[in-house]
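pasting for ref. prot 1 ->
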Amino acid sequence: MTMSMATGNVMPARIMTSLKAIMKSRQITYRDLARQIRLSEASVKRIFSRGTLTLARLDQICQALEVSLSEVVRLASEHSADTPEPLTVEQENALAADPKLLACFYLLANGRTGRDVSAQLGVDERAVRRLMVRLDALRLIELRSKLRARTRAASVIAWRPDGPLRRTYENQIRQEFLQAAFSRSGEALHFLSAELSEASCKVLLRKLERMAGEFRDLAELDRALPPRDKRPMAALLAVRPWVFSMFKSLNALPIPTQRIRSR
């Protein structure tokens, strides 16, 4: 059976894209994969370029990448858009009004179980179940047995540009996030300022969108990992036309001129 027959509406190209993203996140090269599945590097490259392979070969690749076939299919089918769908106003209103509900949804969206949420929030399982029932009613999760749920949203929650969550938390998040030296392991801060052409600005914006997409992809790939194998991470990507206020004040000052003496 070929991959396209097995995955129904999922395009084979999306499956291959998901596999490439997994390889990138695991830092696995075509040569590494070829060695694990006992094929030549050229054969592996041909498989990925043509996008056609048997289910048996796909399963073999998944085993080599230490990821389940269902996880690859889910990643390809549920999150094929460039950007995730934002939450509705009703959903955001409910989350913004109740910090515990928002925290519960965040943890579930990142692959935690109800018991994990109970331990993380310091509340009993009955309280967690009540939160999960509310999230299910909001169609943010699909409640299942034994305090488990399938989230209906991506791991990286897409806030509405001017929605309730941003109005409630954006300023606080910006201040807290930037109050760091960004000098420890796992931290980085690059502030750059220059004059760019319109063409360069468009290229820069496209690259930032691509990087945001890669962050979302990595979050989806790691969603199924146990909590001990991952940690909370945040990235702030921002660019806009901007001039430092000090420079603006200097521009307001008269610029002294120097006469050039003729010889």
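and prot 2 ->
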Amino acid sequence: MPLDHEGPEARALVFKLRHMEVFRAVMLTGSISAAAKMLYVSQPAVSKLIQYIEGRLAYRLFERINNRLVPTHEAQILYREVERVYQAALEVNECALSLGSGGHRNLRISCSASLSTVVIPIALAQLKRESPSLNIEWQTSLMGEMPNQILSKKVDLSIAALPVIHDHLHSRAFMRGRMVVVMPPEHALARHPSLALEQLQGHALLLFRPDMPFGKLLAEHIHRRGLQLESLLSFTNANEAVALVKQGMGISLIDEFVAQDSGLTVVPLADEIHFDISFVYSRFEPPSHSALHLMQVLHAQALKLGRGIEGFALPTPR
């Protein structure tokens, strides 16, 4: 919002800090409507301000091509300078908050529900032991929600059970997991050392919703085998599957991390179905030191379990 009483230095600025914030939001999100959501303002307000900025600067920042907002060459150059200013502002903001909280630092993270029972709690416990003064806010999120959370700065880092594809985000796989079959101990398949997908036919089966990322992953493998596995009931996350299996509704295919803490019999698949757990963060600013510390802890955990992904390298801190 513009200041009511601007000093002579502010009045001398043609491209003011508020202009930079709105311009940056449009560059990050790629559209006026998405930028408005990111800034919690109306779409017309963003559109009018961009037009005003272009008028003050006397050149175009964006062109509309096939209903897409495309940054001009001038906008690309300007964005690099705006990002430098924005990063400096973040450091000032972090300093200001730190002074008010007695030097405490903050870390806000989100993760896929499948990682919330074992992987993330173990890492957060270690992180808190190593950084006792660090304030941590943690939530579970659907992978489709993660881009907006990161770009709107509601979270600093997301840990996703599968890669998140977005033009403005890094999604770096660091740990490999696998899908397993879970069932009550008394089930007819419980004594098998491993199971092929074909062996699940004819049994009451509970599967992920087909529009969910894990549902899509399983559907691809089932289709590749030429199988038709009917689901008695579809669910959104693995914790729901565990609850349904415990009620005797059938068996299920879920990730190994929720499975190992479920209290159910866990049988591996003969032909493993893998998934890659990824760190998700903005392309426009490197992770904070606190976020990088958590990434180091999680990567070490992956290596200890023999699940690290070859070639993964931690990013450079800001």
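The longest strand covers residues 169-183.
The chain has two domains: 8-99, 104-318.
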